[in-house]
Amino acid sequence: MNRLTEFMLPPAKSTTAESTDALFHFINVTSIILLLGITVAIIYFSWKYRRRSDDDVTPVIAHNSKLEITWSVIPLILVMIVFGWGFTGYINLITPPDDAYEIRVVGKSWLWEFHYETGHVSVNELHVPVNRPVKLIMSSDDVLHSFYIPDYRVKMDVLPNRYTSLWFEATEISESVIYCTEYCGTAHSNMLATAHVHSQEDFETWLESAGSADDDMDPAELGEQLVTRNACNTCHSSDGTRLIGPTFQGLWMAERTMQDGEVVVADENYIRESILEPNARINEGYDPVMPSYAGSLNDRQIDAIIEYIKTLQ
Amino acid sequence: MATNDSTTNVKRLQVRRYKPEENPETHYLNQEKGLWAWLTTVDHKKIGLMYLGAIAFFFFVGGVLALLLRTELLTPARSFMDADVYNQVFTLHGAIMIFFFLIPAGPAVLGNFILPLQLGAKDVAFPRLNLASFYIYVIGAVFTLVAIFTGGVDTGWTFYTPYSATTGGNVMAMTFGVFILGFSSILTGMNFIVTIHKMRAPGITWNKLPLNMWALYATSIIQILATPVLAITLLLLTMERALGIGIFDPALGGDPVLYQHFFWFYSHPAVYIMIVPGFGVISEVISTFSRKIIFGYWAIALSSLAIAFIGFLVWGHHMFTAGQSSLANMVFSFLTFLVGIPTGIKIFNWLATMYKGSIDMKTPMLYAMVFLFLFTLGGFTGIMLGALSVDIHLHDTYYVVAHFHYVMMGGMVMAFLAGLHYWWPKIFGKMYSEFWAKISLGLLFIGFNMTFLPQFVMGAQGMPRRYFNYIDQFQSFHQFSTIGAYVMGVAFVIMAGYMLHSLMKGKPASANPWGSRALEWQTSSPPDLHNFHHTPVVINGPYDYHKPMSEFQLGIATSHNGHGHHDHETVNVPKTEKEQA
Question: Are residues A39 and A135 in the same domain?
């Protein structure tokens, strides 16, 4: 039976996961025992009391108070145990320790932004230290999203008009997948991120060097990295494939027709505007769904992306 | 005062036995002819049949959509449709199955046909209103079809804001269709409540009411109390989209969580609109095929009402991760477990009914057993989802999808099919092939578990719902699930086959092929246009299998057929073998 629970759940990599798993296990075992009992009774009765002739006479058994009280009270006790257990686990899940390390999370269609205390922003990559409570303070820029890390057994909806939060303490240095679990449109299922757990020193090193490593890179090369890192490639291909947004291939200096009929040449200013104010002008045949990158990409980074697009002729 | 004793005000009825006529020449299917007679009929049986045709159509459409979804999910990335198309298909699958199939399947199809017959009435209390509710359903359906063909809808069947307020497509036509549909449901519920109160045949006291009637009564209460909230919610949604009034959209100053409260305040009770009529069918079927008095009549009857009542207070368990307060989460979790108790009581009562019975494993009984197994499994996984800390992990994963399909398809669809096979001889006067019915049921059971058991595992491992793409580790589960869906598809094709064969060339059914004591079996198959040729009189409970059949075939003794006004006619018929109770 332990095997079954292990098979059904992803690896437990947070301090709270174990208690959630224990309850999952308890309910599974209890349910399987009861379900087996009921199933055996159904099969046994239908064989033992099968109709032998059309004149069968059946006894009049309409009540049995003892039996009825038993099968009302025992389930009641069981569900009250489950309720109490689930509730205490939940209280732990929503009560972060006071010294938790805080990270701001912003959900946008369709990417996750992580803002650290240094001002650094990473997209679709959450970096956290191991064995230290981390509290995420989350909000959405557009529709509802939901932040879910199965390995940590934590999930919380991300709303546009208020902050929600969740916390966890990762127990091993590894990577875990992050999903969006509130349906948010076309690329809902691509709104994935990865949680990278580092040792405390590695985490500090990463935080200090994050972003600065970009300085000595070739602009076009940096631009290519930024396109991946910021999840531009969720919606914009670089090989001519039509995704949710127009492809980058052949974009540079091309004449583009907008929804209102205006024809625009895709030069530096047009690309810059499309990144910072994506819905100012919409290409014909596409929907105004791109979130703004104002505040998450600086001017040098935008330059690099433009350089990268120039190479995709 | 001639009929009253001087000491009591009890009215004495002269009764005699009316044996149902076998294979009558004229019955409700041939007493009025032509398409126009069908379209304008106020007969509850024909209206029930028109509903049956409509929901069969929508079940087919919803089923094909489900097979498309499962086929697309064979591979982790795109198989043959785009993400946008996929999103529209899962939205339509959900919306059609819930609003156009599951909600009307219990009350509007089986309820409409059986309710007046089980009460010994000629029709429901408001026959014209009944017809009106069918046409309201049709108008709602037309709006939905318009929405599908004019841009589609990709919001999920829950229409969560602010996504539904901002996305493209024709959300307004869809929500308007569902809005209209709600009135059909409200009218049916009101009609049933009045009918059960006012039109029971002489002798059907509240403790002789068939459990199917108690179930429909509980369902009707939910329908008339909960559905208006859905109507208000969808109206507000439409106002927001059309007029820009900020109610749910934060961009306009609204609150998206408010929408979820409104929506689930209806949609949680709505799952009981779907499943409670199924409970009624299962009580009838298990008692009939065990040929035994039902165990715990009042426990089953009152647990339906308890579920209807507590069901109104648990909507917040859909929102444990939505951002409502932790106090609210605690209260909703607690109340959710309380709904489990009356449901469990029903399961045990049905099992106890089978104990020492004379069990005939005909198709409807097999469906009832499959129901017991699948619904119990669905119920246990519901306990899992009600546990707060575990739900945080499982919410919005395939675990929820699997749970929902176990209670709705494993529960309600199996109960509906149990009822359809049980009453089929009464409805059409024909028998179907037991052999093919059992083959189809076997395939359905295997296919169903193949489809949805892997989804529990996937969900617990973290596979989110409503995903067009998924990570490779889930592929084998998805493929297994898809094969299961195809097996179910084959089972339904076989079912359609033997049902059509039964309609064309089926053997004529006798009035009471299962030897039931219930009142609907004490008239011919198919019944007369006015159900009974006499006014039935009931002296025993509907499950009193220890009493002879003759005691269940009584009617007021008159020389005419009981229709029209004959109040002053003298009655002079000798008493039959049974005195009044």
Answer: no
Nearest CA in chain B to A16: B389
pLDDT digits (tens, 9 = 90+) for A156-204: 999 998 899 999 999 999 999 999 999 999 899 999 999 999 999 999 9
Question: Average pLDDT, stretch A75-93?
Answer: 95
Both A244 and A277 in one domain: the answer is: yes
Beta-bridge partner residues of B556: B15
Would residue A55 count as lying in a domain? no
- Residue B251 corresponds to which tokens in the numbers above? 């961009």
Nearest to A45 among B323, B354, B392 (CB): B354
In a domain, residue B461? The reply is yes
Give A94's contacts in chain B (Cβ within 8 Å): 326
* Interface mutation vs chain A, best among B359, B389, B438, B471, most A CBs within 10 Å: B389
> Cα–Cα distance between B61 and B55 in angstroms, integer?
10
Q: What is the pLDDT of residue B8?
A: 63
> Of all residues in chain A, what percent carry a pLDDT higher than 90?
55
- Would you tell me which residues 223-242 of chain A have a C-beta closer than 8 angstroms to some C-beta of chain B? none
> Would you say residue A169 lies in a domain?
yes
Let me know: does B83 contact B164? Beta carbons within 8 Å: no
List the single residue in A with minimal CA-CA distance to B366.
A46
Q: Which residues on B lie below 8 Å from A110 (Cβ)?
A: none
Q: In which domain, by residue range, is A223 found?
A: 215-311
pLDDT score, position A2: 67
Residues A6 and A79 both lie in one domain: yes
Residue of B nearest to A242 (CA): B82
- State in Å, rounded, how far the first CA of chain B is from the last one: 22
Residue percentage of chain B with pLDDT more than 70: 94
| Region A97-108 average pLDDT | 94
Give how far A118 is from chain B: nearest CA, Å.
28
Residues A149/A178, Cβ–Cβ less than 8 Å: yes
Q: Is residue A195 within 8 Å of residue A126, measured between CB atoms?
A: yes
Which domain CATH number covers A231?
1.10.760.10
DSSP H or E stretch at residue A90: helix A65-94
Q: What is the pLDDT of residue A287?
A: 81
Q: CA-nearest residue of chain B to A160? A: B250
What secondary structure, in 3-state letters, does B133-195 show?
Answer: HHHHHHHHHHHHHHHHHCCCCCCCCCCCCCHHHHCCCCHHHHHHHHHHHHHHHHHHHHHHHHH
Give me the pLDDT at residue A214, please. Answer: 65
Q: Does B1 fall in a domain? A: no
Same domain, A247 and A303: yes
Residues B234-281 pLDDT 10s? 889 888 888 888 898 888 888 999 999 999 999 999 999 999 999 999
Answer yes or no: do A63 and B295 touch at CB < 8 A: yes
CATH number of the domain enclosing B552: 1.20.210.10
A129 and A70, same domain (yes or no) = no
Could you read off the pLDDT of B83-114 as tens digits, one per residue? 989 999 999 999 999 999 999 999 999 999 99
Residues pairing with B17 in the sheet: B554
Q: What is the ipTM of this complex?
A: 0.90
- What pLDDT shows up at residue A290? 85
Question: Among residues 30-69 of chain A, which lie with CB inside 8 Å of chain B?
Answer: 31, 34-35, 38-39, 41-42, 45-46, 49-52, 54, 56-64, 67-68
Q: Considering its fold, how many domains does chain A have in total?
A: 3
pLDDT at B40: 92
Kindly list the residues from chain B whose CB atom is less than 8 angstroms away from the CB atom of residue A189.
83, 464, 466-470
Q: Which domain holds residue B548?
A: 37-556
Residues A143 and A186 in one domain: yes
Adjacency order of strands within the sheet including A111-115:
A121-123, A111-115, A101-108, A133-140, A164-169
